[in-house]
Amino acid sequence: MATTESQLDDQQPDAEGGSADEEFEARVGWRYTLKKVKRDATARIGLYIVAFVIFIAAFAAIDSNLSRLTFGALSDYTAAQALPFFDHPTRIPPPGEGNPNQPPMFLDGGTLSQPLGTDPQGRDYFTRIVYGSQVSVSVGLAATAIGLIGGTIIGSIAGYYGGWVDDVLMRSVETVYAIPPLVLIIVFTVFVSGGSPDIQYAVIGVGIAFIPVFARIIRSRVLSVREMDYIEAARAAGVKDRNIIRRHVIPNSFAPVMVYATLQIGVTILIVAGLSFLGYGAQPPTPDWGEMLRIAHGRYMHSNIWLSIWPGLAILVTIMGFNLFGDGLQDALDPRIKN
Amino acid sequence: MGLLRYTIYRLIQAIPVLIGISVITFVLANLAPGDPVRLMLQGQQADEELIRTIEQRYGLDQPLHVRYWNYMTGLVQGDLGYSIHRDRPVADLMLERTGPTLLLVLSAYLFAILTAIPLGVIAAKRRNEPTDHISRIVALIGVSTPSFWIGIMLIIVFAVKLGVLPSAGLVYPWQPPEAAGHGSYLEHWSETIRHLILPMIALGTLQMATLMRVERTQMIESLQEEYVKLARAYGVPERTILRKHAFRSAQLPIITIIGLNLSTALGGAVLVETVFAINGIGRLFIEAIQQLDYQLIMGITMVLGFMFVIGVVITDISYAYIDPRVTYGERD
Question: Which family does it belong to (chain B) (predicted)?
């Protein structure tokens, strides 16, 4: 059995395959895609922004006092306090040593050591924005991964078997899709957490809410992949359906989904920011951009406008990075849309 | 299949999805640890006897499937349930709040369509010129910015700093002017518009950006069609080609996108209503969530889901009506 399967694997269109396969690979393969992305200016800018945000997020995790390191700012955060997934006993940070509501450095009363000023509790706003990247990036990736995995399983099964399996699965998925994502996620978060929402529930909720879109894309790809000769051959050789789906169908249907996933990370970050803004995502004192905007909008919109400006700009830049990169990937994969 | 039969067919097709929505909301609302009455009390101490009486009165002591059946039979008769928390029927509560949300969402769409279509057409016509680049950057920023942040920024600029537009609330045009303290309908309605401008832009920007991208791509494609080339060869003026030949066929996908984006717009309304303190369905939903008023939560979720499904059916039907090439009875 094992030998049959490995032999069949060799029949998949590889980069080293026959001439027809080579041509196929040249159009949809990863290497070709990457080459085109590198040539595409917008995709490159997107890639740089994404890399920058991820770098900051990773760097903040390694050195909890990034702000002190670069600007000499005072901050008492530790990585465990900042990371949403660690349930740290002392999650309430000690009060910062700066003045509350200090303006950013380019205004009167601002200092270089606190470039973006401080929040109403005297915490360095720059540090909090930096930590916010950690929350956003991890949340965006985790929720998209849940949607991707769930959607891949459901979509590939629905597409491969067809018939009533397809009908039942896709109808259920359409049902989830019909409820506005934000509403569905809030209901999920609140009820599953038993009335005390937090970011973990939000991530799972967002992931589930985005299973439908991934399932639909995967399914439409699987419908064409399952007609391929190598699937027929595997079936004739007696390979189990489960293994055909896992080893042949999914790997060959994946490319367009990856593009979509990149774009989806941006959407996920947008939704989670909205959730936190309403109070159903990250909870204080987690430095989440949406949560920071909630506090700014609630009480400080008139007295300290800068509290509202920075987190929004951070969200905008991050999401724009993922969108640019995703658009570039899409252009590379679908030359029809390209100018 | 005729148009009428297609309409009926699409409506019948929507039934399983509608039932599915009811199952999802029902299961979610009953997934919560502890029973709804205790959850509603939010940890407050209450008489056990009292809790049992409330449960019996609203049928909450019955098994889940019986409750679902009761709920569904009520729903078919137009009964959305009863909010124990507010001591009023859910349908009444929702009806009161529907107007502002509809006004907000429709005006946001109006704003999006009126800006996106001209900008998309111009961008397609002047492809790769500065105008095109600027409009693409605007679209990119539009899809990357949270609606509630746009709202906050608009409030800061136009209400806090310039003080020219109101930052909160809505003036309902269907009310008599006296109720809002206005002398005439003219004053009343101009106040309505003044209150509507900022939330409309906040909610409409994402839709505008999405529609603009689609419009641009569609126009570029339809400008390359054979019949456009033919019209050009015949010496038809470029303006006429744009308006009569290319434009019309490019609008069909726009209708689909509008229908599919309805779900995002309704979700966005929750955020924008919160930012601008508008008493619509979105805020009612947030209030219900805060009070863990689960009958009301279920009612709202269900109605929003229904609205989306019906919206998609309407777009499908109008699509079939506008485009004679659409064969009735084919899915997607």
Answer: Belongs to the binding-protein-dependent transport system permease family.
Q: How far is CA B201 from CA A35, B63, B107, in A?
A: 39, 47, 9
Residues β-bridged to residue A118: A124
- Residues facing residue B88 across a β-bridge: B83
pLDDT of residue B142: 92
Q: How far does A237 lie from chain B, in Å, by closest CA?
A: 35
Strand partners, B308: none
Give which of A168, A191, A263, A339 to mutate to test B binding, by max B Cβ within 10 Å.
A191
Among A187, A216, A299, A339, the strongest candidate for a mutation testing the B interface, having the largest count of B CBs within 10 A, is A187
Of B128, B263, B289, the CB nearest to A186: B289
Reported confidence tier of residue A150, pLDDT bands at 50, 70, 90? very high
Domains of chain A: which residue ranges? 125-333
pLDDT digits (tens, 9 = 90+) for A265-309: 999 999 999 999 999 988 877 788 999 999 888 888 888 888 899
Residue whose C-alpha is closest to residue A236's, from A33, A3, A8, A6: A8
CB pairs under 8 A between A and B: 150
Domains annotated for chain B, with CATH where assigned, are 1-90+294-332 (no CATH), 99-279 (1.10.3720.10)
For A312, the closest chain B residue by CA position comes to B149
Interchain contact, A315 vs B145, CB within 8 Å: yes
Q: Which whole number is the average pLDDT over B127-156? A: 91
List the one residue out of A109, A14, A124 whose CA is nearest residue A76. Answer: A124
CATH number of A125-333: 1.10.3720.10
